[in-house]
Amino acid sequence: MYKAVIKPLFFLLSPEKAHHFTITLLKFTLGIPLIGYIFRWVFRVRDMRLEKTVFGLTFPNPVGLAAGFDKDGQHFRAMSSLGFGFLELGTVTPRPQGGNPQPRLFRLPADEALINRMGFNNEGVEALVARLKNGKRPEGVVIGGNIGKNKDTPNDQAEEDYVFCFERLHAYVDYFVVNVSSPNTPNLRDLQEKEPLQKLLGRLQSLNQTFEHPKPILLKIAPDLTDGQLDDIIDIVDITGIAGLIATNTTISRSGLQTSDETVEAIGNGGLSGQPLTDRATEVIKYLHHKSENRWPIIGVGGIASPKDALEKLEAGAQLIQIYSGLVYEGPSLVKKLNPSILAGKR
């Protein structure tokens, strides 16, 4: 029904309008008690064999919602009804910011891909804290907080932005993700270089130990890193003692696309996600898993739109996976398709 009826209608709208309309409609629909119960009954796959304990947290299943879908924590209760084992909110910054000018989200249907240059548009960390503090958390669902810096914060002051978000959110999320890999904030990826990244993560980890209950800290990395840079990332994780990695964010590469060069050039800059990222994200996971000798967990994300994609990520070394673009092209039943296939080990 989604592919035959709903998706064609949504694709008549601009991608950003379709996104807001979809989640608003979902939130309204699931607010009806009986409908919410039906959704949870249909989409949730309850099986103890799907449970995984990773970096000290118990996940009811290994399929999560990637950051970017619910930046401000407005829809996490509705999204939990679709069967996710965990939800990652953000990326959130200390101060509200509008992000980049529209249009800033584009579909590539021939590639089942998206290009975005959203630019960390969000209402600021205080708005997210208020929603998490005052809202009812979904039972059993792990919630992560993805943190970044404001666009106008110079890189030499970026640590303060991450520290501020970390301190404000610490009581309200189960784990943290440090995002220095988005291609849509000027010079942000410079923070992936070894010296500034080790300094940032080391400071957050030291701060983390001052809390009564430290939270796992993960780093989200770009798929465009060289093997040498990935080796540096492995060293940094070992030195700082953070909990693990999320591989990968969107790519700036445009190689191998079915969409015409003219269309891609007209879209311009932004991070590419979806099916074209599938193989590269898997390669990065496999490399990290092998070179690190599985010393810490990896969350795999990038181009997961089928059971085959999910199993490839897990076989490459990921312990958990996340989806986003796949929801746009496959619909909300994707989570329900993935979990039984993971359980059975069938593609």
Question: What does this 3D model show about the protein?
Answer:
This protein is α/β, with parallel strands linked by helices. The chain has helices at residues 2-10, 15-30, 33-43, 76-80, 125-134, 158-169, 194-208, 227-240, 261-267, 278-291, 307-316, 325-330, 334-344; strands at 52-54, 57-59, 63-65, 86-92, 105-108, 113-116, 142-147, 175-179, 217-221, 244-247, 271-274, 298-301, 320-323. The longest helix is centred in the N-terminal third of the chain and has 16 residues, at 15-30. It starts with a helix and ends with a helix. The relative contact order is 0.14.
Label this structure with key terms.
globular; alpha/beta; 3-stranded antiparallel beta sheet; 13 strands; single chain; TIM Barrel; 8-stranded parallel beta barrel; 13 helices; 347 residues
